[in-house]
Design goal:
Distance between the termini: 29 Å
Helix content: 10-25%
Number of strands: 6
Strand order of the largest sheet: 1-4
Structural class: alpha+beta
Shape: elongated
Largest sheet: 2 strands, antiparallel
Radius of gyration: 19 Å
Number of helices: 4
């Protein structure tokens, strides 16, 4: 479930790398002709766009934690999902960050009753277009937190 959340809303929207050798990418669909990238070219990798590419993630708007079952992961390119980057320059704190996300979820569920603000989720969650680095909902949170106990 955490991996699917990170697919839909990665911590960063892009990452950059320097191409180290001549490569040709694309060409897997009619509307995506192959592109040659020469060694030394800076490349911006749009994580959000790649994580929402129907070629790798069919029906990308749908929240589906089963995308990250071992069986489904084996069918997909290993770099189709990289919320913390990949390779030797990936985020050094990604394991710590994942642990903190899981601990935060546990803490919230232990301390709060979590309910839908209006009794049902919105049809579509629009993102704030002014915040291009972190994804935040345009119209605020649609969930409510009620404290369960006093500290």
């Amino acid at each position: 479930t955490v991996e699917e959340c990170l697919r839909k809303h990665p911590p960063g929207t892009t990452t950059t790398r320097l191409c180290t050798k001549d490569v040709e990418i694309g060409g897997h669909t009619d509307n995506c002709p192959p592109i040659k990238i020469e060694a030394g070219t800076p490349v911006v990798l749009p994580m959000y766009s790649l994580h929402n590419d129907p070629y790798h993630f069919p029906d990308p708007e749908r929240f589906d934690p089963e995308r990250f079952s071992e069986e489904n992961k084996e069918k997909r390119h290993p770099y189709a999902h990289f919320p913390f980057g990949a390779g030797p320059r990936s985020c050094p704190g990604f394991r710590f960050a994942l642990s903190m996300v899981k601990m935060s979820i546990i803490s919230i569920l232990l301390d709060f009753k979590v309910t839908l603000r209006d009794g049902k989720p919105p049809e579509k969650i629009e993102l704030n277009p002014m915040n291009t680095f972190f994804h935040t909902p345009k119209n605020g949170l649609w969930i409510k937190f009620d404290k369960l106990r006093q500290n």
